[in-house]
Amino acid sequence: MRIGYGYDAHRLKAGRECILCGVGIPCDFGPDGHSDADVPVHALMDALLGALALGDIGKWFPDSDEKFRMADSVELLKLVYSAVMERGYILGNADITIVLQSPRLSGYIKQMRAVLADALESEIGRISIKATTEERMGFTGDGTGIAATAVVLLKEQMQN
Ligand code: MG
Description:
This protein has one domain: CATH 3.30.1330.50. Helices cover 29% and strands 31% of the residues.
């Protein structure tokens, strides 16, 4: 088995779409960035890559590359997971935490889990997504930004 950890943070900007774990959140601001800036998916990709010591998403999908402008991060996640499977591993489970002061995400968590389970060819019961605030402290608390962490466990596939 292999374990991986990922972290990402983005600045929030008025007028940007807010897409988290592939789900559009009705909101008048969203994470700024080169791609769709789906922060929890970025953390999840880094966790998957980290588990197999494959570098990070900055190496795989450079933000200097026009190809990735407004890229759908869930599609990039599928590419990363293909690379994981090519190396003989499958997802055991994933545990993601999104840190955002507002809006409340509880109504969207189930849909987010379904999107990620589909992208990772997994069951929804293996995908945990939690949302928290930092109680108005720091850059997430004052609305400057959003952060996310992800931990994954990968299982080596038995060869036969
Ligand atoms: Mg990012």
